[in-house]
Specification:
By secondary structure, this protein is of the alpha/beta class. It has 2 domains: 66 residues; 96 residues, no CATH class. It is 41% helix and 9% strand. The chain contains 7 helices and 4 strands; from the N terminus they run H-H-H-E-H-E-H-E-H-E-H. Helix 5 links the parallel strand 2 and strand 3. Helix 2 packs across helix 3. It is elongated and about 60 Å long.
């Protein structure tokens, strides 16, 4: 049994209302930056939607969308929004023995990827998958990025900035579930490897 479209018609914001909302979001984030998108949303409760708005998923989605548009459009500095929930799991590696000796000889591990023409990394949908993949990526010195559902714009932007600094082509391998979220990833369509294959 499927669900039909909602019979409730929500009025779309006018261009002036969207610009006013973005100005309010900018002011909120400016006073608290750096902050997370969720923190910006909580700062906006009451101020943006009235004191009785409660915690609405729809209002949170508006904040996520508008802060994304603002950053991508250059209206809000990327560094004002942080994302501490998505972690990169990669073993410590060094360019030389001298570099390692400056810190400690016990943790030395040669960075075998520094001389390669291409950067290789693994992205996965959840921390549970990351726990399975980490022994393999760790053994090969490959970065493991756990998206915890959908990656935030901050997480992706920071990864891209790292690619730009290194100046190498990148191969990213993705591991995720064959559900609507997993299939929304570029390449997540029939013909690609499914979970368990």
């Amino acid at each position: 049994m499927g669900y039909g479209a909602s019979s409730v018609k929500r009025a779309r914001r006018t261009k002036a209302q969207v610009e006013a909302l973005r100005a309010e979001l900018y002011a909120l984030v400016e006073t608290a930056q750096p902050c997370s998108v969720r923190h910006a949303y909580y700062l906006g409760i009451g101020r943006l939607w009235g004191k009785d708005s409660g915690t609405s998923r729809r209002n949170y989605s508006v904040v996520v969308r508008e802060l994304g548009v603002m950053r991508e459009g250059g209206m809000l500095p990327w560094e004002w929004i942080t994302d501490g929930t998505r972690l990169v799991r990669q073993e410590t590696a060094f360019d030389s023995i001298e570099d390692a000796l400056e810190r400690t000889a016990e943790v030395y591990r040669r960075n075998l990827w520094s001389t390669q023409a291409r950067r290789v990394e693994v992205w996965c949908e959840s921390d549970s998958i990351a726990g399975v993949l980490q022994p393999v990526t760790s053994a090969w010195g490959v970065g493991l990025y756990s998206c915890r559902g959908q990656s935030s714009k901050t997480f992706v932007h920071e990864a891209v900035q790292q690619y730009v600094r290194q100046g190498k082509p990148v191969t990213a391998v993705f591991a995720g579930d064959w559900d609507p979220s997993g299939r929304s990833v570029p390449g997540g369509r029939p013909g690609y490897a499914r979970k368990g294959q």
